[in-house]
Amino acid sequence: MDARVSELFGSGNGHGSGSQGVASNVKPGNAFGMGIAPKKASAKSKKAKTRSFRNFKPSNNTPYLPPEAEEGNIEYKLKLVNPTQYRFEHLATQMKWRLQEGRGEAVYQIGVEDNGMLVGLSEEDMRTSLKTLHMLAEKIGADITVLREREVDYDSDEPRKIAEVLIRKVPDDQQFLDLRVAVLGNVDSGKSTLLGVLTQGELDNGRGRARLNLFRHLHEIQTGRTSSISFEILGFNSKGEVVNYSESRTAEEICESASKMITFIDLAGHHKYLKTTIFGLTSYCPDFAMLVVSANTGIAGTTREHLGLAMALKVPIFIVISKVDLCTRATVERTVRQLERVLKQPGCNKVPMVVGSTDDAVTAAQQFAQSPNITPIFTLSSVSGESLDLLKVFFNIIPPLSNSKEQEELMQQLTEFQVDEIYTVPEVGTVVGGTLYSGICREGDPLVVGPTDSGQFHKLTVGSIQRNRSACRVLRAGQAATLALGNFDRSLLRKGMVMVSPEMDPTICWMFEAEIVLLFHAKTFHKGFQVTVHIGNVRQTATVEAVYGKEELRTGEKAVVRFRFIKHPEYLKVGAKVLFREGVTKGIGHVTKLQPIAQYQLSQSEDEET
Question: Cα separation of 52 and 27, whole Å?
Fold first, then answer.
Protein backbone atom coordinates (compact mmCIF):
# COMPACT_ATOMS: atom_id res chain seq x y z
CA MET A 1 0.00 0.00 0.00
CA ASP A 2 1.26 3.55 0.59
CA ALA A 3 1.52 6.02 3.46
CA ARG A 4 -2.23 5.83 4.13
CA VAL A 5 -2.05 2.18 5.13
CA SER A 6 0.71 3.05 7.54
CA GLU A 7 -1.52 5.61 9.16
CA LEU A 8 -4.42 3.18 9.24
CA PHE A 9 -2.58 0.20 10.72
CA GLY A 10 0.21 2.05 12.48
CA SER A 11 -1.25 4.43 14.99
CA GLY A 12 -2.86 3.35 18.22
CA ASN A 13 -2.71 -0.40 17.66
CA GLY A 14 -1.26 -1.20 21.04
CA HIS A 15 2.01 -2.62 19.66
CA GLY A 16 4.04 0.52 20.15
CA SER A 17 5.37 2.10 17.01
CA GLY A 18 8.85 2.31 15.58
CA SER A 19 11.89 2.50 17.82
CA GLN A 20 11.09 5.14 20.41
CA GLY A 21 12.37 8.48 19.24
CA VAL A 22 14.59 6.91 16.61
CA ALA A 23 13.16 7.75 13.21
CA SER A 24 13.92 11.35 12.50
CA ASN A 25 11.28 11.54 9.77
CA VAL A 26 8.32 10.35 11.84
CA LYS A 27 5.47 12.82 11.84
CA PRO A 28 2.92 13.09 14.68
CA GLY A 29 0.13 10.53 14.39
CA ASN A 30 2.06 8.49 11.85
CA ALA A 31 3.76 5.56 13.49
CA PHE A 32 5.85 4.34 10.60
CA GLY A 33 7.93 7.36 9.81
CA MET A 34 6.19 7.47 6.46
CA GLY A 35 5.54 11.19 6.44
CA ILE A 36 6.99 11.22 2.94
CA ALA A 37 4.87 9.27 0.49
CA PRO A 38 6.48 8.30 -2.82
CA LYS A 39 6.16 11.27 -5.18
CA LYS A 40 4.40 9.38 -7.94
CA ALA A 41 1.63 8.22 -5.67
CA SER A 42 0.52 11.71 -4.62
CA ALA A 43 -1.35 12.69 -7.79
CA LYS A 44 -3.10 9.33 -7.99
CA SER A 45 -4.06 9.45 -4.35
CA LYS A 46 -5.79 12.82 -4.83
CA LYS A 47 -7.86 11.39 -7.69
CA ALA A 48 -8.67 8.32 -5.64
CA LYS A 49 -9.77 10.55 -2.78
CA THR A 50 -12.23 12.50 -4.90
CA ARG A 51 -13.64 9.30 -6.40
CA SER A 52 -13.98 7.57 -3.04
CA PHE A 53 -15.77 10.36 -1.29
CA ARG A 54 -18.21 11.49 -3.95
CA ASN A 55 -21.20 9.59 -2.58
CA PHE A 56 -20.18 9.43 1.05
CA LYS A 57 -20.10 11.93 3.86
CA PRO A 58 -17.03 10.94 5.86
CA SER A 59 -15.80 12.10 9.22
CA ASN A 60 -12.81 14.46 9.33
CA ASN A 61 -10.18 11.74 9.30
CA THR A 62 -11.59 8.94 7.12
CA PRO A 63 -8.82 6.54 6.11
CA TYR A 64 -8.93 4.99 2.64
CA LEU A 65 -6.84 2.94 0.23
CA PRO A 66 -6.12 3.51 -3.47
CA PRO A 67 -8.84 2.03 -5.74
CA GLU A 68 -8.53 -1.70 -6.40
CA ALA A 69 -6.34 -2.63 -9.37
CA GLU A 70 -7.56 -5.14 -11.97
CA GLU A 71 -4.13 -6.75 -12.11
CA GLY A 72 -1.86 -7.72 -9.22
CA ASN A 73 -2.44 -9.92 -6.19
CA ILE A 74 -4.42 -7.54 -3.93
CA GLU A 75 -8.21 -7.95 -3.71
CA TYR A 76 -10.72 -5.78 -1.80
CA LYS A 77 -13.88 -7.39 -0.42
CA LEU A 78 -16.54 -5.50 1.53
CA LYS A 79 -18.02 -8.67 3.02
CA LEU A 80 -18.40 -12.37 2.23
CA VAL A 81 -21.57 -13.36 4.09
CA ASN A 82 -23.49 -16.48 2.95
CA PRO A 83 -22.72 -16.36 -0.80
CA THR A 84 -24.90 -18.39 -3.19
CA GLN A 85 -23.35 -21.44 -4.87
CA TYR A 86 -22.87 -19.51 -8.14
CA ARG A 87 -21.27 -16.57 -6.30
CA PHE A 88 -19.04 -18.97 -4.33
CA GLU A 89 -17.72 -20.52 -7.56
CA HIS A 90 -17.08 -17.06 -9.00
CA LEU A 91 -15.17 -16.01 -5.84
CA ALA A 92 -13.05 -19.20 -6.01
CA THR A 93 -12.12 -18.46 -9.64
CA GLN A 94 -11.25 -14.88 -8.66
CA MET A 95 -9.01 -16.13 -5.84
CA LYS A 96 -7.19 -18.44 -8.27
CA TRP A 97 -6.54 -15.45 -10.56
CA ARG A 98 -5.14 -13.31 -7.70
CA LEU A 99 -2.90 -16.19 -6.57
CA GLN A 100 -1.64 -16.65 -10.12
CA GLU A 101 -0.86 -12.92 -10.35
CA GLY A 102 1.17 -13.09 -7.13
CA ARG A 103 2.91 -16.35 -8.14
CA GLY A 104 1.24 -18.24 -5.28
CA GLU A 105 0.45 -15.39 -2.85
CA ALA A 106 -2.49 -12.98 -2.57
CA VAL A 107 -3.59 -10.36 -0.03
CA TYR A 108 -7.30 -9.83 0.71
CA GLN A 109 -8.52 -6.65 2.43
CA ILE A 110 -11.86 -7.46 4.10
CA GLY A 111 -14.25 -4.60 4.90
CA VAL A 112 -13.00 -2.41 2.03
CA GLU A 113 -15.03 -1.15 -0.97
CA ASP A 114 -13.59 -1.54 -4.50
CA ASN A 115 -12.97 2.20 -4.63
CA GLY A 116 -10.75 1.97 -1.53
CA MET A 117 -13.24 3.20 1.07
CA LEU A 118 -12.64 1.57 4.45
CA VAL A 119 -16.19 0.80 5.57
CA GLY A 120 -15.42 -1.92 8.13
CA LEU A 121 -17.60 -4.80 9.33
CA SER A 122 -19.33 -5.71 12.59
CA GLU A 123 -17.81 -8.49 14.71
CA GLU A 124 -20.36 -11.04 13.44
CA ASP A 125 -19.98 -10.12 9.74
CA MET A 126 -16.18 -10.20 10.01
CA ARG A 127 -16.25 -13.66 11.59
CA THR A 128 -18.60 -14.96 8.84
CA SER A 129 -16.52 -13.33 6.08
CA LEU A 130 -13.30 -14.91 7.35
CA LYS A 131 -15.07 -18.29 7.58
CA THR A 132 -16.21 -17.94 3.92
CA LEU A 133 -12.67 -16.95 2.93
CA HIS A 134 -11.36 -20.04 4.71
CA MET A 135 -13.83 -22.26 2.78
CA LEU A 136 -12.80 -20.62 -0.53
CA ALA A 137 -9.12 -21.21 0.23
CA GLU A 138 -9.85 -24.80 1.24
CA LYS A 139 -11.66 -25.41 -2.06
CA ILE A 140 -8.65 -24.38 -4.14
CA GLY A 141 -6.08 -25.94 -1.76
CA ALA A 142 -4.69 -22.75 -0.23
CA ASP A 143 -4.10 -21.61 3.36
CA ILE A 144 -5.04 -18.29 4.95
CA THR A 145 -3.32 -16.24 7.66
CA VAL A 146 -4.85 -13.11 9.19
CA LEU A 147 -2.01 -10.61 9.09
CA ARG A 148 -3.74 -7.90 11.13
CA GLU A 149 -7.13 -6.55 12.18
CA ARG A 150 -7.94 -2.93 12.88
CA GLU A 151 -10.94 -0.97 14.11
CA VAL A 152 -12.13 1.79 11.79
CA ASP A 153 -12.93 4.91 13.74
CA TYR A 154 -16.31 6.06 12.42
CA ASP A 155 -18.89 8.07 14.35
CA SER A 156 -20.99 4.96 15.03
CA ASP A 157 -21.89 3.17 18.26
CA GLU A 158 -20.93 -0.27 16.99
CA PRO A 159 -17.18 -0.91 16.52
CA ARG A 160 -16.34 -1.78 12.90
CA LYS A 161 -13.25 -3.73 11.82
CA ILE A 162 -11.23 -4.34 8.69
CA ALA A 163 -8.84 -7.27 8.26
CA GLU A 164 -5.84 -7.98 6.06
CA VAL A 165 -5.46 -11.65 5.11
CA LEU A 166 -2.56 -13.43 3.38
CA ILE A 167 -3.55 -16.38 1.16
CA ARG A 168 -0.82 -18.75 -0.01
CA LYS A 169 -0.86 -21.71 -2.34
CA VAL A 170 1.98 -23.28 -4.23
CA PRO A 171 1.07 -23.40 -7.93
CA ASP A 172 0.59 -26.97 -9.17
CA ASP A 173 3.40 -26.68 -11.70
CA GLN A 174 6.17 -25.61 -9.31
CA GLN A 175 7.66 -26.63 -5.96
CA PHE A 176 7.74 -23.33 -4.09
CA LEU A 177 8.01 -19.56 -4.47
CA ASP A 178 11.72 -18.70 -4.32
CA LEU A 179 13.24 -15.33 -3.40
CA ARG A 180 16.98 -14.64 -3.35
CA VAL A 181 18.43 -12.26 -0.75
CA ALA A 182 22.08 -11.14 -0.97
CA VAL A 183 23.62 -10.47 2.47
CA LEU A 184 26.01 -7.50 2.51
CA GLY A 185 27.85 -5.58 5.22
CA ASN A 186 31.28 -4.82 6.70
CA VAL A 187 33.54 -7.54 8.07
CA ASP A 188 32.53 -8.67 11.61
CA SER A 189 29.06 -7.09 11.36
CA GLY A 190 27.38 -10.46 12.11
CA LYS A 191 26.14 -11.54 8.64
CA SER A 192 26.96 -15.26 8.85
CA THR A 193 25.87 -15.45 12.51
CA LEU A 194 22.47 -13.91 11.69
CA LEU A 195 21.98 -16.40 8.83
CA GLY A 196 23.03 -19.27 11.11
CA VAL A 197 20.43 -18.22 13.69
CA LEU A 198 17.67 -17.82 11.07
CA THR A 199 18.34 -21.09 9.24
CA GLN A 200 19.34 -23.33 12.18
CA GLY A 201 16.69 -22.03 14.61
CA GLU A 202 19.17 -21.72 17.52
CA LEU A 203 20.45 -18.48 19.06
CA ASP A 204 24.18 -17.71 19.01
CA ASN A 205 26.35 -18.04 22.12
CA GLY A 206 28.05 -14.67 21.53
CA ARG A 207 31.25 -16.32 20.21
CA GLY A 208 30.12 -17.29 16.70
CA ARG A 209 28.80 -20.83 17.23
CA ALA A 210 25.78 -20.21 14.94
CA ARG A 211 27.93 -19.41 11.89
CA LEU A 212 30.07 -22.59 11.94
CA ASN A 213 27.59 -24.56 9.78
CA LEU A 214 27.77 -21.90 7.04
CA PHE A 215 31.52 -21.89 6.45
CA ARG A 216 32.92 -23.83 3.49
CA HIS A 217 36.69 -23.72 4.22
CA LEU A 218 38.93 -24.42 7.19
CA HIS A 219 40.51 -20.95 7.10
CA GLU A 220 37.01 -19.42 7.36
CA ILE A 221 36.36 -21.37 10.58
CA GLN A 222 39.78 -20.38 11.97
CA THR A 223 39.48 -16.63 11.19
CA GLY A 224 35.68 -16.33 11.42
CA ARG A 225 35.66 -14.46 8.09
CA THR A 226 33.64 -15.48 5.03
CA SER A 227 35.77 -15.57 1.86
CA SER A 228 33.50 -17.53 -0.49
CA ILE A 229 29.84 -17.38 -1.52
CA SER A 230 27.61 -19.77 0.40
CA PHE A 231 23.86 -20.39 0.17
CA GLU A 232 21.46 -20.92 3.04
CA ILE A 233 17.70 -21.57 2.94
CA LEU A 234 14.83 -20.46 5.15
CA GLY A 235 11.37 -21.82 4.36
CA PHE A 236 7.81 -20.78 5.25
CA ASN A 237 4.87 -23.16 4.96
CA SER A 238 1.46 -22.14 3.59
CA LYS A 239 0.34 -21.06 7.09
CA GLY A 240 3.30 -18.69 7.41
CA GLU A 241 5.24 -20.81 9.94
CA VAL A 242 9.05 -20.98 9.73
CA VAL A 243 10.53 -24.19 8.27
CA ASN A 244 14.28 -24.53 8.96
CA TYR A 245 16.90 -27.01 10.16
CA SER A 246 15.79 -26.71 13.82
CA GLU A 247 13.87 -30.00 13.74
CA SER A 248 16.89 -31.86 12.26
CA ARG A 249 15.41 -31.67 8.79
CA THR A 250 17.41 -32.15 5.63
CA ALA A 251 17.31 -29.58 2.83
CA GLU A 252 14.99 -31.93 0.90
CA GLU A 253 12.48 -32.00 3.77
CA ILE A 254 12.54 -28.21 4.02
CA CYS A 255 11.82 -27.95 0.27
CA GLU A 256 8.97 -30.44 0.53
CA SER A 257 7.17 -28.76 3.44
CA ALA A 258 7.83 -25.11 2.46
CA SER A 259 5.64 -23.16 0.05
CA LYS A 260 7.91 -20.10 0.12
CA MET A 261 11.68 -20.25 0.23
CA ILE A 262 14.16 -17.49 1.00
CA THR A 263 17.63 -18.31 -0.37
CA PHE A 264 20.32 -16.24 1.35
CA ILE A 265 23.50 -15.55 -0.61
CA ASP A 266 26.12 -15.05 2.13
CA LEU A 267 28.78 -12.70 0.72
CA ALA A 268 32.18 -11.64 2.07
CA GLY A 269 32.53 -8.42 4.05
CA HIS A 270 36.32 -7.98 3.92
CA HIS A 271 37.72 -5.60 1.30
CA LYS A 272 40.20 -8.30 0.23
CA TYR A 273 37.28 -10.40 -1.10
CA LEU A 274 35.44 -7.52 -2.85
CA LYS A 275 35.64 -9.23 -6.27
CA THR A 276 33.79 -12.25 -4.81
CA THR A 277 31.10 -10.00 -3.35
CA ILE A 278 30.61 -8.15 -6.66
CA PHE A 279 30.44 -11.50 -8.51
CA GLY A 280 27.72 -12.67 -6.09
CA LEU A 281 25.69 -9.51 -6.68
CA THR A 282 26.00 -9.47 -10.47
CA SER A 283 25.76 -13.16 -11.36
CA TYR A 284 23.21 -14.57 -8.88
CA CYS A 285 20.57 -11.89 -9.70
CA PRO A 286 19.31 -11.37 -6.09
CA ASP A 287 15.75 -10.05 -5.66
CA PHE A 288 16.72 -8.05 -2.57
CA ALA A 289 19.83 -7.13 -0.58
CA MET A 290 20.10 -7.18 3.21
CA LEU A 291 22.77 -4.78 4.51
CA VAL A 292 23.91 -5.84 8.00
CA VAL A 293 25.37 -3.07 10.18
CA SER A 294 26.88 -3.67 13.62
CA ALA A 295 25.20 -1.45 16.26
CA ASN A 296 28.45 -0.83 18.13
CA THR A 297 30.63 0.16 15.14
CA GLY A 298 27.99 1.84 12.93
CA ILE A 299 28.82 2.66 9.29
CA ALA A 300 32.41 1.49 8.92
CA GLY A 301 34.72 -0.24 6.44
CA THR A 302 32.96 -1.57 3.36
CA THR A 303 29.39 -0.64 4.50
CA ARG A 304 29.11 2.43 2.23
CA GLU A 305 30.75 0.58 -0.65
CA HIS A 306 28.28 -2.34 -0.39
CA LEU A 307 25.34 0.09 -0.17
CA GLY A 308 26.65 1.86 -3.29
CA LEU A 309 27.08 -1.45 -5.16
CA ALA A 310 23.50 -2.54 -4.41
CA MET A 311 22.16 0.85 -5.53
CA ALA A 312 24.31 0.87 -8.69
CA LEU A 313 22.91 -2.56 -9.63
CA LYS A 314 19.37 -1.40 -8.69
CA VAL A 315 18.87 -4.14 -6.09
CA PRO A 316 16.22 -3.06 -3.50
CA ILE A 317 17.92 -2.88 -0.10
CA PHE A 318 16.80 -3.14 3.53
CA ILE A 319 18.98 -2.75 6.61
CA VAL A 320 19.49 -4.92 9.71
CA ILE A 321 21.31 -3.42 12.71
CA SER A 322 22.79 -6.39 14.59
CA LYS A 323 24.49 -6.83 18.00
CA VAL A 324 22.04 -4.55 19.87
CA ASP A 325 22.64 -6.70 22.99
CA LEU A 326 26.20 -5.29 23.20
CA CYS A 327 25.22 -1.62 23.32
CA THR A 328 23.09 0.83 25.19
CA ARG A 329 19.84 2.10 23.69
CA ALA A 330 21.52 5.49 22.99
CA THR A 331 24.27 3.80 20.90
CA VAL A 332 21.66 1.93 18.83
CA GLU A 333 19.73 5.17 18.25
CA ARG A 334 22.94 6.94 17.20
CA THR A 335 23.63 4.17 14.63
CA VAL A 336 20.05 4.45 13.30
CA ARG A 337 20.35 8.25 12.96
CA GLN A 338 23.73 7.84 11.21
CA LEU A 339 22.12 5.42 8.70
CA GLU A 340 19.15 7.74 8.15
CA ARG A 341 21.49 10.62 7.32
CA VAL A 342 23.30 8.48 4.72
CA LEU A 343 20.03 7.14 3.22
CA LYS A 344 18.54 10.65 2.86
CA GLN A 345 21.58 12.07 1.08
CA PRO A 346 20.95 13.25 -2.52
CA GLY A 347 22.83 10.25 -3.93
CA CYS A 348 20.57 7.76 -2.13
CA ASN A 349 17.18 9.54 -1.86
CA LYS A 350 15.76 6.75 0.30
CA VAL A 351 12.97 6.97 2.88
CA PRO A 352 14.10 5.16 6.06
CA MET A 353 11.39 3.24 7.93
CA VAL A 354 12.26 1.89 11.38
CA VAL A 355 10.43 -1.36 12.19
CA GLY A 356 9.43 -1.71 15.85
CA SER A 357 6.35 -3.95 15.87
CA THR A 358 4.71 -6.79 13.92
CA ASP A 359 2.40 -4.25 12.35
CA ASP A 360 5.37 -2.21 11.14
CA ALA A 361 6.93 -5.35 9.63
CA VAL A 362 3.75 -6.15 7.61
CA THR A 363 3.53 -2.60 6.25
CA ALA A 364 7.28 -2.48 5.59
CA ALA A 365 7.13 -5.67 3.48
CA GLN A 366 4.28 -4.32 1.32
CA GLN A 367 5.73 -0.79 1.01
CA PHE A 368 9.20 -2.12 0.21
CA ALA A 369 7.99 -4.25 -2.70
CA GLN A 370 5.94 -1.40 -4.20
CA SER A 371 8.34 1.54 -3.82
CA PRO A 372 12.10 1.16 -4.29
CA ASN A 373 12.67 4.30 -2.19
CA ILE A 374 11.42 2.76 1.05
CA THR A 375 14.23 1.27 3.18
CA PRO A 376 13.06 -0.73 6.22
CA ILE A 377 15.50 -0.74 9.18
CA PHE A 378 15.44 -3.61 11.72
CA THR A 379 17.31 -3.57 15.06
CA LEU A 380 17.95 -7.07 16.42
CA SER A 381 20.29 -9.39 18.28
CA SER A 382 21.41 -12.90 17.24
CA VAL A 383 22.35 -13.69 20.87
CA SER A 384 19.27 -12.55 22.83
CA GLY A 385 16.89 -13.07 19.86
CA GLU A 386 15.46 -9.56 20.28
CA SER A 387 13.24 -8.54 17.30
CA LEU A 388 14.24 -11.62 15.25
CA ASP A 389 10.53 -12.44 14.87
CA LEU A 390 9.92 -9.10 13.10
CA LEU A 391 12.50 -10.02 10.46
CA LYS A 392 10.81 -13.43 9.99
CA VAL A 393 7.38 -11.74 9.57
CA PHE A 394 8.96 -9.44 6.96
CA PHE A 395 10.43 -12.39 5.01
CA ASN A 396 7.14 -14.29 5.22
CA ILE A 397 5.09 -11.45 3.69
CA ILE A 398 7.50 -9.88 1.21
CA PRO A 399 6.13 -10.53 -2.32
CA PRO A 400 8.18 -11.38 -5.43
CA LEU A 401 9.19 -8.39 -7.55
CA SER A 402 8.25 -9.85 -10.93
CA ASN A 403 4.64 -10.70 -11.68
CA SER A 404 3.38 -13.83 -13.41
CA LYS A 405 3.14 -12.11 -16.81
CA GLU A 406 6.87 -11.19 -16.88
CA GLN A 407 7.70 -14.73 -15.75
CA GLU A 408 5.58 -16.20 -18.61
CA GLU A 409 7.32 -13.98 -21.19
CA LEU A 410 10.78 -15.06 -20.00
CA MET A 411 9.77 -18.73 -20.03
CA GLN A 412 8.66 -18.51 -23.68
CA GLN A 413 12.13 -17.39 -24.82
CA LEU A 414 14.95 -19.77 -25.79
CA THR A 415 16.89 -21.45 -22.96
CA GLU A 416 19.85 -19.53 -21.51
CA PHE A 417 21.64 -20.77 -18.36
CA GLN A 418 24.49 -18.73 -16.81
CA VAL A 419 27.36 -20.82 -15.39
CA ASP A 420 28.53 -19.45 -12.00
CA GLU A 421 30.06 -22.50 -10.30
CA ILE A 422 31.72 -25.72 -11.56
CA TYR A 423 32.19 -28.87 -9.45
CA THR A 424 33.24 -32.48 -9.90
CA VAL A 425 31.05 -34.80 -7.82
CA PRO A 426 32.06 -38.45 -7.28
CA GLU A 427 29.80 -40.93 -9.14
CA VAL A 428 27.94 -38.01 -10.80
CA GLY A 429 30.64 -36.33 -12.87
CA THR A 430 30.76 -32.65 -13.84
CA VAL A 431 28.16 -30.39 -12.21
CA VAL A 432 27.51 -26.71 -12.99
CA GLY A 433 25.65 -24.25 -10.77
CA GLY A 434 23.99 -21.04 -11.87
CA THR A 435 20.79 -19.26 -12.81
CA LEU A 436 18.39 -19.94 -15.69
CA TYR A 437 18.05 -16.51 -17.26
CA SER A 438 15.31 -17.39 -19.75
CA GLY A 439 13.34 -20.33 -21.14
CA ILE A 440 12.74 -23.75 -19.55
CA CYS A 441 15.30 -26.49 -18.91
CA ARG A 442 14.38 -30.18 -18.48
CA GLU A 443 16.36 -33.33 -17.81
CA GLY A 444 17.76 -34.70 -21.08
CA ASP A 445 17.67 -31.35 -22.96
CA PRO A 446 20.44 -30.92 -25.57
CA LEU A 447 22.26 -27.56 -25.09
CA VAL A 448 25.50 -25.94 -26.27
CA VAL A 449 28.02 -24.39 -23.85
CA GLY A 450 30.60 -21.67 -24.53
CA PRO A 451 32.29 -19.51 -25.64
CA THR A 452 35.71 -21.19 -25.40
CA ASP A 453 38.95 -19.20 -25.78
CA SER A 454 38.56 -19.51 -29.55
CA GLY A 455 34.88 -18.47 -29.44
CA GLN A 456 33.44 -21.95 -30.04
CA PHE A 457 30.56 -23.84 -28.41
CA HIS A 458 30.39 -27.52 -27.36
CA LYS A 459 27.35 -29.78 -27.38
CA LEU A 460 26.15 -31.38 -24.14
CA THR A 461 23.08 -33.03 -22.59
CA VAL A 462 21.56 -32.05 -19.23
CA GLY A 463 21.48 -34.99 -16.81
CA SER A 464 19.72 -34.44 -13.50
CA ILE A 465 18.68 -31.07 -12.01
CA GLN A 466 18.73 -30.03 -8.33
CA ARG A 467 17.30 -26.92 -6.65
CA ASN A 468 18.23 -26.21 -3.03
CA ARG A 469 19.74 -29.69 -2.72
CA SER A 470 16.54 -31.48 -3.75
CA ALA A 471 15.74 -33.10 -7.12
CA CYS A 472 13.77 -31.09 -9.66
CA ARG A 473 12.42 -32.17 -13.07
CA VAL A 474 11.82 -28.78 -14.72
CA LEU A 475 13.74 -25.54 -14.26
CA ARG A 476 11.99 -22.24 -15.07
CA ALA A 477 13.33 -18.78 -15.92
CA GLY A 478 14.69 -16.92 -12.90
CA GLN A 479 15.41 -20.04 -10.84
CA ALA A 480 18.87 -21.03 -9.57
CA ALA A 481 19.93 -24.68 -9.75
CA THR A 482 22.76 -27.16 -10.32
CA LEU A 483 22.81 -29.31 -13.47
CA ALA A 484 24.68 -32.63 -13.79
CA LEU A 485 26.46 -32.95 -17.14
CA GLY A 486 27.68 -36.56 -16.78
CA ASN A 487 31.16 -37.22 -18.17
CA PHE A 488 31.50 -33.83 -19.93
CA ASP A 489 35.14 -32.64 -19.72
CA ARG A 490 35.41 -30.13 -16.87
CA SER A 491 38.49 -28.47 -18.38
CA LEU A 492 36.29 -27.11 -21.21
CA LEU A 493 34.19 -25.13 -18.70
CA ARG A 494 34.84 -21.89 -16.83
CA LYS A 495 32.80 -19.37 -14.84
CA GLY A 496 31.14 -16.80 -17.08
CA MET A 497 30.12 -19.27 -19.80
CA VAL A 498 26.51 -19.76 -20.89
CA MET A 499 24.57 -22.88 -21.80
CA VAL A 500 22.06 -22.01 -24.50
CA SER A 501 19.55 -23.68 -26.77
CA PRO A 502 21.16 -24.89 -30.05
CA GLU A 503 18.64 -22.74 -32.02
CA MET A 504 19.93 -19.54 -30.37
CA ASP A 505 22.47 -17.43 -32.20
CA PRO A 506 24.56 -16.02 -29.31
CA THR A 507 26.56 -12.82 -29.84
CA ILE A 508 30.21 -13.43 -28.89
CA CYS A 509 32.57 -10.49 -28.78
CA TRP A 510 36.08 -9.41 -27.88
CA MET A 511 35.13 -5.73 -27.97
CA PHE A 512 32.10 -3.82 -26.73
CA GLU A 513 31.06 -0.23 -26.08
CA ALA A 514 29.46 0.98 -22.86
CA GLU A 515 28.14 4.27 -21.57
CA ILE A 516 29.83 4.67 -18.19
CA VAL A 517 30.00 6.99 -15.19
CA LEU A 518 33.32 7.13 -13.33
CA LEU A 519 32.38 6.92 -9.63
CA PHE A 520 35.86 7.34 -8.21
CA HIS A 521 39.35 7.60 -9.63
CA ALA A 522 42.55 8.86 -8.04
CA LYS A 523 44.00 10.39 -11.24
CA THR A 524 42.53 10.29 -14.75
CA PHE A 525 40.90 7.49 -16.76
CA HIS A 526 42.22 7.26 -20.33
CA LYS A 527 42.96 5.00 -23.31
CA GLY A 528 45.15 2.00 -22.39
CA PHE A 529 43.85 1.79 -18.81
CA GLN A 530 43.10 -1.78 -17.61
CA VAL A 531 40.12 -2.61 -15.37
CA THR A 532 38.30 -5.73 -14.14
CA VAL A 533 34.85 -5.74 -15.78
CA HIS A 534 31.78 -7.40 -14.21
CA ILE A 535 28.78 -7.98 -16.53
CA GLY A 536 26.31 -10.51 -15.14
CA ASN A 537 28.33 -13.69 -14.57
CA VAL A 538 31.24 -12.43 -16.72
CA ARG A 539 34.33 -11.30 -14.81
CA GLN A 540 37.43 -10.48 -16.84
CA THR A 541 40.16 -7.88 -17.26
CA ALA A 542 39.57 -5.50 -20.17
CA THR A 543 41.61 -2.70 -21.74
CA VAL A 544 40.15 0.72 -22.56
CA GLU A 545 40.53 0.97 -26.35
CA ALA A 546 38.93 4.39 -26.79
CA VAL A 547 37.11 7.12 -24.85
CA TYR A 548 34.74 8.83 -27.30
CA GLY A 549 34.59 12.62 -27.32
CA LYS A 550 37.18 13.07 -24.55
CA GLU A 551 40.88 12.54 -24.00
CA GLU A 552 40.45 11.46 -20.37
CA LEU A 553 37.80 11.06 -17.68
CA ARG A 554 37.74 12.38 -14.14
CA THR A 555 35.60 11.37 -11.14
CA GLY A 556 31.87 11.90 -11.78
CA GLU A 557 32.19 12.31 -15.58
CA LYS A 558 30.20 10.36 -18.19
CA ALA A 559 31.38 8.99 -21.52
CA VAL A 560 31.00 6.18 -24.05
CA VAL A 561 34.03 3.90 -23.81
CA ARG A 562 35.19 0.95 -25.94
CA PHE A 563 36.60 -2.00 -23.97
CA ARG A 564 38.52 -5.05 -25.23
CA PHE A 565 38.74 -8.31 -23.26
CA ILE A 566 42.26 -9.59 -22.62
CA LYS A 567 41.91 -13.39 -22.27
CA HIS A 568 38.90 -14.71 -24.17
CA PRO A 569 35.72 -13.55 -25.92
CA GLU A 570 32.47 -13.41 -23.92
CA TYR A 571 28.74 -13.71 -24.54
CA LEU A 572 27.14 -10.29 -23.87
CA LYS A 573 23.84 -8.51 -24.44
CA VAL A 574 23.08 -4.87 -25.23
CA GLY A 575 21.63 -3.11 -22.17
CA ALA A 576 23.43 -5.34 -19.63
CA LYS A 577 24.74 -3.52 -16.53
CA VAL A 578 28.51 -2.99 -16.43
CA LEU A 579 30.50 -2.57 -13.23
CA PHE A 580 34.28 -2.13 -13.37
CA ARG A 581 37.03 -1.67 -10.80
CA GLU A 582 40.80 -1.44 -10.47
CA GLY A 583 42.27 -0.62 -7.08
CA VAL A 584 40.33 2.43 -5.90
CA THR A 585 38.95 3.12 -9.40
CA LYS A 586 35.25 2.27 -9.75
CA GLY A 587 32.62 2.89 -12.41
CA ILE A 588 29.19 1.75 -13.56
CA GLY A 589 27.26 1.85 -16.82
CA HIS A 590 25.53 -0.29 -19.42
CA VAL A 591 26.49 -2.00 -22.69
CA THR A 592 25.41 0.11 -25.69
CA LYS A 593 27.00 -1.71 -28.64
CA LEU A 594 28.65 -5.07 -29.35
CA GLN A 595 31.29 -5.83 -31.97
CA PRO A 596 30.62 -9.54 -32.61
CA ILE A 597 33.29 -11.86 -33.96
CA ALA A 598 32.36 -14.38 -36.72
CA GLN A 599 29.01 -15.78 -35.63
CA TYR A 600 28.72 -18.68 -33.23
CA GLN A 601 30.32 -21.95 -34.30
CA LEU A 602 30.46 -25.48 -32.93
CA SER A 603 33.93 -26.91 -32.28
CA GLN A 604 35.59 -28.55 -35.33
CA SER A 605 35.46 -32.14 -34.05
CA GLU A 606 31.72 -31.86 -33.39
CA ASP A 607 31.16 -30.36 -36.85
CA GLU A 608 32.92 -33.35 -38.44
CA GLU A 609 30.80 -35.76 -36.38
CA THR A 610 27.56 -34.11 -37.55
Answer: 25
